[in-house]
Q: What sequence folds into this?
């Protein structure tokens, strides 16, 4: 079964490779997005907007930091954490 993180990463990689990366450059989940100068200031805004659209919520300003957007893998794990187990029901309240 594919996780939300894996599906998000797949979709972001398709977008980056088709819309952002220059011809001949292939982006994978661990490609450094800033160190390779793949993103300029406008592309960073597009990356944030893409992420917000995909996760279905705005990213708080305090979370918009370069370290949260270093790689596709980092974005996926940072903004789509694995689901937590559901809490046990409180039988005393029943």
A:
């Amino acid at each position: 079964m594919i996780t939300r993180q894996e599906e998000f990463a797949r979709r972001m990689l398709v977008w980056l490779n088709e819309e952002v990366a220059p011809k001949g450059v292939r982006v994978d989940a661990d490609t450094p997005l800033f160190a390779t100068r793949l993103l300029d200031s406008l592309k960073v805004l597009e990356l944030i907007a893409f992420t917000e659209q995909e996760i279905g919520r705005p990213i708080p300003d305090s979370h918009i930091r370069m370290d949260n957007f270093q790689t596709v893998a980092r974005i996926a794990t940072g903004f789509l954490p694995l689901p937590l187990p559901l809490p046990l029901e409180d039988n005393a309240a029943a």
User: Anything to note?
Assistant: Helices lie at 4-20, 41-55, 72-79. The mean pLDDT is 87. The chain is about 45% helix and 0% strand. Residues 27 and 55 are 21 Å apart (CA to CA).
